[in-house]
Task: inverse folding
C-alpha cells in the first residue's frame, strides 16, 4: 500500500463519516467460500488451446470442481478419457499456485475443473492467453434494494467502526463501471476478519494497518463508488485497484 494511502486511511479513524449514526438492520452475511481447507483468491492466467485428450494418472477417483474458483466439487472414477480446451492458473489462500483444466467426457455428462497433476496427456496448440488478474469472490452477500449497513462491534477494538454493506449493485455494469459488487464483497470479507480475528495480523502488518486499509476503501465505496462518482473511462481500473488493495489486507491475515 502506498504511504499516502495509509496516512489517509489512518487519519480517517477519527472522522465521523459513517453517515446517519444509527445503523439499520440488513439481510447480509459474509462467509468465506472454502473448499477442502482452502479458497481461490485470484485467477492469474487463463489459457485456451485446441481440443486435447487427457487420461487420469491413476485409476482412483479424481475431484472435479464446478467453477474455476474451485467452489463445489464432486468426484469421478469411471471416466477414463477427458477432453479439454481451457486451463487457469489460480492462487490459493494458502499462498500456493496451481493449474486446473476444464474437462468433459466424450458425452459431456461429466465435466468440471481438474488439477493438472491428476492428468496425463499433451496440451494442444495455444490459441489465446490472458494474464489479466481476476479477483475471486470471497463472500456470499444477500443484497437489499438500497444501501444499508449493519454494525459489527469488535470485542478487542471496540472503538473501531466495522460494518457489512448490503446493496443491489451490478457486477457487470453499475453506472458504467464493472466489479462494483466484488469491491463490496471484498470489503465485507475484510470487515468480518477484523471483527472475528483481530489478532490475525499480529505476525504480519499489524491490526492498525489492516483496519486502516479497510476504513479508507470503505469510505471510497460509500462516498465515491456507490453514488457513481467513480464512473466513465477508467472507472473499472480504479475499482479493480481498490479490490486489489483490500484483498492485500485479507491475504496478510494469518488465522
Result:
Amino acid at each position: 500500500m502506498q504511504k499516502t494511502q495509509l496516512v489517509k486511511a489512518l487519519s480517517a479513524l477519527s472522522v465521523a463519516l459513517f453517515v446517519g449514526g444509527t445503523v439499520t438492520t440488513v439481510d447480509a452475511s459474509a462467509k468465506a467460500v472454502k473448499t477442502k481447507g482452502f479458497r481461490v483468491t485470484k485467477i492469474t492466467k487463463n489459457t485456451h488451446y485446441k481440443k486435447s485428450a487427457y487420461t487420469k494418472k491413476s485409476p482412483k477417483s479424481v475431484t472435479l470442481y464446478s467453477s474455476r474458483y474451485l467452489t463445489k466439487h464432486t468426484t469421478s472414477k469411471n471416466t477414463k478419457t477427458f477432453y479439454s480446451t481451457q486451463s487457469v492458473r489460480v492462487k490459493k489462500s494458502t499462498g500456493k499456485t496451481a493449474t486446473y483444466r476444464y474437462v468433459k467426457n466424450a458425452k459431456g455428462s461429466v465435466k468440471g475443473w481438474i488439477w493438472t497433476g491428476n492428468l496425463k496427456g499433451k496440451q494442444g496448440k495455444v490459441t489465446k492467453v490472458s494474464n489479466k488478474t481476476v479477483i475471486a469472490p470471497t463472500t456470499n452477500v444477500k443484497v437489499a434494494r438500497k444501501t444499508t449497513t449493519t454494525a459489527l462491534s469488535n470485542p478487542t477494538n471496540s472503538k473501531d467502526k466495522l460494518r457489512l454493506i448490503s446493496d443491489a449493485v451490478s457486477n457487470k455494469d453499475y453506472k458504467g463501471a464493472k466489479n462494483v459488487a466484488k469491491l463490496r464483497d471484498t470489503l465485507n470479507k475484510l470487515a468480518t476478519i477484523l471483527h472475528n480475528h483481530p489478532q490475525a495480523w499480529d505476525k504480519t502488518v499489524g491490526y492498525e494497518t489492516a483496519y486502516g486499509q479497510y476504513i479508507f476503501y470503505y469510505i471510497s465505496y460509500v462516498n465515491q463508488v456507490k453514488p457513481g462518482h467513480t464512473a466513465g473511462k477508467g472507472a473499472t481500473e480504479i475499482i479493480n485497484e481498490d479490490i486489489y488493495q483490500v484483498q492485500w489486507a485479507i491475504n496478510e491475515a494469518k488465522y
